[in-house]
Amino acid sequence: MIRIVQEAAEKAGGIVALARELGIKHPSLHSWTRVPAERVIKIEKLTGIPRHRIRPDLYGDSLEAAE
Prior knowledge:
The chain has seven helices and no strands. By secondary structure, the protein is mainly α. The chain has a single domain, classed as Orthogonal Bundle (434 Repressor (Amino-terminal Domain)). α1 crosses α2. The mean pLDDT is 93.
């Protein structure tokens, strides 16, 4: 499992809790090589992890986000 999903799961109360909130089965989270674009905002709202950390390729890094 990718690191950002592990971190999100910890903040959400576990992998099963995160999957439940996303409306998916928890094994799906293990197959992600990156967070799907359509899941970024929901994960940000659930966990407080900024979108630019979840998918910097879509939202830029933190320095770009501040500009």
